[in-house]
Amino acid sequence: MTLLRLEGVSVRFGGRAAVDAVDLEVAEHETVCVLGPSGSGKSTLLRVVAGLQPVSGGRVLLDGADQAGVPVHRRGVGLMFQDHQLFPHRDVGGNVAFGLRMRGAAGRGAYGSRVAELLELVGLPGAQGRAVASLSGGEQQRVALARALAPSPRLLMLDEPLGQLDRGLRERLVVELRGLFARLGTTVLAVTHDQGEAFALADRVVVMRDGRIAQAGTPLEVWQRPASEFVARFLGFENVVPAVVSGGVADTAWGKVPVPDGAPEGAQRVLIRPAGVTVGADGLRCEVLSRTFRGTHVALLLGPEAGPVLEAECGLAGAPAVGDRVAVSFAPAEVVVLPPQ
Ligand SMILES: Nc1ncnc2c1ncn2[C@@H]1O[C@H](COP(=O)(O)OP(=O)(O)OP(=O)(O)O)[C@@H](O)[C@H]1O
């Protein structure tokens, strides 16, 4: 069932559309992550849903009810922002209880057990009495989450939820959040500029560009089939060149590249994901310009004898060294013929 529906939502500041005729649905129990470069309209979209930003056009519906004129505190949405805005003068319990009081969600006596339950849920059991200032960044994030979850919002909205935390902690928390949302059946609309975070957290990602949706789909769909060169580059793929496609082969600056069956023919732009650039004995000759250890693989930057630099991936064992001369071939499964801009 659809919980949130945006119909042609636009927000204009001066003459400029920050959000431009956006249609979006979020189903109950679904986690949707809105992703996009700075200024693409992500936060504005979130603020619209929360009721913090009036629309210039279109409608926001929650459970089928038009939210026009419904104030923030009556929308039943929970908000957690990047700078988590905890009250420094209240202890942890006081901060979480604030989330309950805002909604009048429980009688005063019931706060204590609900706060305890929420702190347990976010992995901070017994932290009620701790001062906010004594918490690490990750712990503060958990308290902010407990506070946002306190009134059991029908929609939880997160704006750059893990933005300030270091990478290792972010990766751990993302996994925890995903598990928590699945257990609670929470419906989540999150905004992030970090594609790794979005892909790890979301059932569906929505990539925004200049106030519009450039692509929406499951993480796998978007990763495997970026809908445009913009999306491909935003995901960090740099191997994009013009090509003429004919008979299952793309003619590119790197030579002939096999394309998947059924790819559109004619003048196109082609993406080769680094995983599809295979280092071997035959093929396009290249010099290794750099190599970067990535944990599970080695990322190579190659200078080919023809065409622009190429990104490739190879296994840790036997990775070539900088300055080595190698040859590469291309795997059609990792080649995407991109739609015209
Ligand atoms: N209150 C405002 N008044 C005028 N312009 C605004 C206002 N809020 C946002 N904008 C503009 O609208 C556009 C979208 O901003 P928004 O904050 O939604 O982008 P974003 O994708 O969330 O960016 P970031 O990742 O940097 O937070 C930007 O060009 C921004 O400058």
TrEMBL record:
InterPro entries: AAA+_ATPase, ABC_SmlMolc_Importer, ABC_transporter-like_ATP-bd, ABC_transporter-like_CS, Mo/tungstate-bd_C_term_dom, P-loop_NTPase, Transp-assoc_OB_typ2. PANTHER family: SPERMIDINE/PUTRESCINE IMPORT ATP-BINDING PROTEIN POTA (PTHR42781), SPERMIDINE_PUTRESCINE IMPORT ATP-BINDING PROTEIN POTA (PTHR42781:SF4). Gene3D superfamilies: P-loop containing nucleotide triphosphate hydrolases. Residues 4-235 form the ABC transporter domain. One of its GO terms (molecular function) is ATP binding. The gene is fbpC. Keywords: ATP-binding, Nucleotide-binding, Transport. It holds the Pfam family TOBE_2. The keyword Nucleotide-binding applies. This is Fe(3+) ions import ATP-binding protein FbpC.
